[in-house]
Each structure stands twice: as C-alpha cells, then as structure tokens.
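Pipeline run #58 for the internal structure catalog. This entry was flagged by the ingest filter as a single-chain record with no existing model, so it goes straight to prediction. Upstream metadata was stripped on purpose; only the residue string is passed forward. Reviewer on rotation: M.T. Logging verbosity set to normal.
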Amino acid sequence: MSSIQELVKRTGVSSRMLRYYDEKNLLHPVYRSESGIRYYDESAIGAISLIGTFLSLDYRLEEIREILSEETFSPEKGL
C-alpha cells in the first residue's frame, strides 16, 4: 500500500487532485487511517493513468466514473 504522498511522488498527480478524485468517486483509498491518511493499492496507479488519459480526450468526470465503475473494468487489464 502507498500513502497519498507516496502516490503523489509515483504519479506526479497532486494530493489535492487525488482527494478530488476521491470526492468525485473516481478513485478510492483502500484504507484510511484514524488520522485520515489515505492509502492506495497498486491498482490506483493504473486508474490514475486512465483518468488522466480520459481527461486529455475530453471525457467528462461523470463519463469516467461510469467507465471505472463498470463491473467488467479493471485498471490492470485496461478497457
């Protein structure tokens, strides 16, 4: 598991943006500590990459959320 700060270092996406993705139900931490620190598993890196790709292709956040929430979707496998 990676803390939000470790994920920032690995992906280059700001912690503010990661929190926003969480708020918009695009990316969820697998664990949140008592002090509120978010922790993510390795699949978060793929999801973050896909979110960035979809945003660069002018997908709306609602569309991205729909794609990522599909039962058959897996960031490790792609689309």
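catalog note: The two ends are 24 Å apart (CA to CA).
catalog note: The first strand starts at residue 2 and ends at 3.
status: ready for reviewer M.T.
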